[in-house]
Design a protein that fits this description.
By secondary structure, the chain is an alpha/beta fold. The chain is 37% helix and 19% strand. The strands form three sheets. The chain has a seven-stranded parallel sheet, sandwiched between helices. It has a three-stranded mixed sheet with strand order 6-7-11. A two-stranded antiparallel sheet has the order 8-10. A hairpin with a 2-residue loop joins strand 6 and strand 7. Helix 1 packs across helix 6, helix 3 packs parallel to helix 4 and helix 5 packs across helix 7. It starts with a strand and ends with a helix. The mean pLDDT is 97. The structure holds NADP nicotinamide-adenine-dinucleotide phosphate (NAP).
Length: 247
């Protein structure tokens, strides 16, 4: 199967291209570094020639609110139009668990816009909504730091290893289009506890306090805002402790 991974040079994309190639597929990494720009359309038609499946694991280079929304809109429109023209039969995208509950966050609004474009595109699709990557916990801690102290919400988080996200995407990419699927790590616990464990293990001396008033990148969190609630989610096997031991 020819599978084009848009964002195939990034954190998830590079892992995914390797996994698909190991499984005997023709996996093509596409991004600006390989001459493919989904925002301008440069190189897109050529890259999609003969593709059976396209996986979109791009991310906006700048995380300012207006730029992120413009990126996911423009990129999604161009990519999906190019897929229709090329006769691609399965579009796979990586989104975020709970995105539809977190519209107060500008980043989440941009991901919602991305999902809406996919739903309206007419291209058969699977959207894999993943929880926060273990690799993203440092960014969460940075965003929650006030005067050197990390303010951790008591809301639950169920983070997942980037390797497990890539493995789930590799499965999804070669299966039939399946709509929206949630993926989480094996354990849910309060954010302040996860951050405390993460910072201790990484030798970071910042104090972590529980703070029910702290928001999450602009969104207020309820207890289960960030975790799957359907009971049908797929679980990545790696625990935070296993990942920390490996890292
Ligand atoms: N962080 C989390 O915890 C989390 C959780 C759930 C879902 N997600 C989602 O996971 C996705 C991937 O995240 P990641 O951490 O793997 O991202 P990343 O490492 O920042 O990689 C982003 C990729 O997008 C490519 N890219 C950027 N602009 C492009 C453009 N105009 N045209 C073509 N390619 C472009 C980049 O390559 P070039 O620079 O070469 O263009 C790179 O390959 C994101 O959509 C994010 O919303 C993240």
């Amino acid at each position: 199967m020819r599978i084009v991974v848009i964002g195939g040079t990034g954190r998830i994309g590079s892992r995914l291209v390797g996994l698909l190639a190991d499984r005997g597929h023709e996996a093509v990494a596409a991004s600006r570094k390989t001459g493919v720009d989904t925002v301008t359309g440069e190189g897109l038609a050529d890259a999609l020639g003969g593709a059976d499946v396209v996986v979109d694991v791009t991310n906006a280079p700048l995380l300012e609110a207006a730029e992120v929304l413009a990126f996911f809109r423009r990129s999604g429109e161009r990519l999906l139009a190019a897929e229709r023209a090329a006769g691609v039969r399965h579009h796979v995208a990586l989104s975020i668990v709970g995105v539809d509950r977190l519209g107060a966050s500008a980043y989440m609004r941009a991901k919602i816009a991305q999902e809406e474009l996919i739903g309206e595109s007419g291209v058969p699709f699977t959207i894999l909504r993943a929880t926060q990557f273990f690799e993203f916990l440092g960014t969460i801690a940075a965003g929650a730091t006030i005067d050197g102290v990390v303010h951790g919400s008591p809301a639950l988080i169920q983070p997942v290893a980037a390797d497990d996200v890539a493995a789930a995407l590799a499965d999804v990419a070669v299966a039939q289009p399946a709509g929206v699927i949630d993926l989480a790590g094996p354990v849910a616990e309060p954010i302040h506890e996860t951050l405390r464990r993460f910072l201790t293990a990484t030798g970071d001396a910042r104090e972590v306090v529980e703070d029910p008033t702290v928001d999450y990148f602009g969104a207020h969190l309820e207890e289960k805002s960030l975790i799957p609630t359907s009971g049908r989610e797929r679980l990545g096997p790696t625990t935070l402790d296993e990942w920390l031991a490996r890292a």
